[in-house]
Amino acid sequence: MNHNVEIVEKIINNVGKVIIGKRQNVYEIVKGMIAGGHILIEDVPGVGKTTLIKAIKQSFDLSYSRIQFTPDLLPSDITGISIYNSSTGTFIFNKGPVFSNIVLADEINRTSPKTQSALLEVMEEMQVSEGGKTYELEKPFFIMATENPIEYEGTFSLPEAQLDRFIIKVHMGYPINRDEAEILRLYRKDNPLEELTPVATKADLENLQRAVKEIKVKDDINKFIVKIVDGTRNHRDIFLGGSTRASLALLRISQATALIEGRDYVIPEDVKSSVKLVLNHRIILTNSATARGVKVEDILDEILSMIIVPKVREND
């Protein structure tokens, strides 16, 4: 086991001490982090979305803040605001909660589009512009957002431009009976999350992010990625397909997958296993497809089945 794989395993195992039966979700989130992207977690209330993010942040020695999104939240509540200092006659910028390495945007779809749009510059440029000045965010920087897909009253759909800036979207689902029983046993007296300690440093994460970018990608793999994303743009049941940013996201997540698997090159299986994780939230179906109950996952399976998978070997 190489050093990078060892660090990833430490993180996943550490989170597994408090998040039972969700190793795949933890694996996906760690992939998103070492790929350098923001992460959206969507599921019904009470399945552990917020706890999972807290366990992730406590496994790293990183700064953290939480924003509870509500309808009355203002953009300045997120980014910060300049306050006039009468004694000096100048404005002083008070930094908002986005000035952290990991920002939990809890129930992000409960705030207005105006406030949601305040995150666009932050997520893409990793900076905040206020009062004619630009303030750089400390790296590494992640928005980890949660949303509830069931409740519609008092919620606002995330705009496509913002969804496109989340490198992956994770679905947790209910735990199986055995895992839920273990959760009850584990949390019977205390919250084990409070005992969780970091197993990776900021430098470890930055090294992993650099290592991901060094993972080799053959031209045939690039063409494979392009064909998959292009297939979403030309499908009869898709109104809006994947963007070029989606292609880049699929590339980076595939590289992260290869790194975690202990390889220094991407194979087609890395891409195929990442397609739904990267593209699900970026695709909008036609009204006709929605009315017929068509699922995005089935369309992606169909697109993959129609594309010839390249043969890539280590020594090619």
Task: Give a topology summary.
Blueprint: H1 3-15, H2 23-34, E1 38-42, H3 49-58, E2 64-68, H4 75-79, E3 80-85, E4 90-95, E5 102-106, H5 113-125, E6 127-130, E7 133-136, E8 142-147, H6 160-163, E9 166-171, H7 177-186, H8 202-213, H9 219-233, E10 238-240, H10 244-260, H11 268-272, H12 275-279, E11 284-285, H13 287-291, H14 296-305
Parallel strand pairs: 1-8, 1-9, 2-5, 5-8
Antiparallel strand pairs: 3-4, 6-7, 10-11
Give structural attributes.
single chain; 316 residues; alpha/beta; Rossmann fold; Helicase, Ruva Protein, domain 3; 2 domains; 5-stranded parallel β-sheet; 14 helices; 43% helix; globular
Explain how this protein is built:
The protein is of the alpha/beta class. The chain has 2 domains: 1-213, 3-Layer(aba) Sandwich (Rossmann fold), CATH 3.40.50; 215-316, Magnesium chelatase subunit I, C-Terminal domain (Helicase, Ruva Protein, domain 3, Orthogonal Bundle). 43% of the residues lie in helices and 16% in strands. It is built from 14 helices and 11 strands. It has helices spanning 3-15, 23-34, 49-58, 75-79, 113-125, 160-163, 177-186, 202-213, 219-233, 244-260, 268-272, 275-279, 287-291, 296-305; strands at 38-42, 64-68, 80-85, 90-95, 102-106, 127-130, 133-136, 142-147, 166-171, 238-240, 284-285. A 5-stranded parallel sheet has the order 2-5-8-1-9. The radius of gyration is 20 Å and the shape is globular. The chain starts with a helix and ends in an 11-residue tail after the last helix. The relative contact order is 0.15. The model has no long low-confidence stretch (mean pLDDT 91).
